């Protein structure tokens, strides 16, 4: 198979020098962006779908699921789990990649809002995947990377086994640095060889282009107290 995918080009020589400051800020100051109505509706539908399933079935979140192939794979691999894939792109979600298993759901929503609603509703995913998030490799775009974003404490607070994969090693290293700052937990950055078992289209594209892939997996406690609130900010 032929595939071409350009290597990441960045103007950063190493981890972003403002990362620790960004994480500190996210841990201290609440995210005030209002939650969009469409994501509130989408979340309520997802919450209702979860409530219909077998009581106590563990939850898997596939955050930024793209076309939802990974959501389908995970649902088949973990048949006793409920798997929710979330992506903001209606176009990607609408592509036909076969029937969805009964234990899977695809949701169109903005994760920055969806994650906050999930935490507020008490969701505690057993597994949480961030598979090939947009890298935003320019130094000026640190705030758009999940670990440089104000939503970062919420991602961590949800808890469970969090797995990040990327074709940019520095993204995973920065994420590990931010995780350690927020929780004290060290997560190893490992190379990832998917072999013939691709979990996502981006994993496939990067691998057949000869790029190295990187991953981090860490088991986190459910820790809503990590997220700053207005009350805490006033102290
Ligand atoms: C590089 S693609 C990876 C897709 C898929 N995980 C894969 O590996 O094939 C990143 C995905 O994250 C989604 N995304 C980025 N920011 C998002 C947000 N704030 N809310 C929901 N989805 C988002 C994009 O729409 C896109 O589908």
Automatic annotation (TrEMBL):
EC number: 2.1.1.33
UniProt feature coiled coil, ranges: none
Top-level taxon in the UniProt lineage: Bacteria
GO MF terms, alphabetically ordered: tRNA (guanine(46)-N7)-methyltransferase activity
Reaction(s) catalysed (UniProt annotation): guanosine(46) in tRNA + S-adenosyl-L-methionine = N(7)-methylguanosine(46) in tRNA + S-adenosyl-L-homocysteine
PROSITE patterns, A to Z: SAM_MT_TRMB
Pfam family, one: Methyltransf_4
One GO CC term, this protein: tRNA methyltransferase complex
Keywords: Methyltransferase, S-adenosyl-L-methionine, Transferase, tRNA processing
Function in brief: Catalyzes the formation of N(7)-methylguanine at position 46 (m7G46) in tRNA.
Protein's name in the database: tRNA (guanine(46)-N(7))-methyltransferase
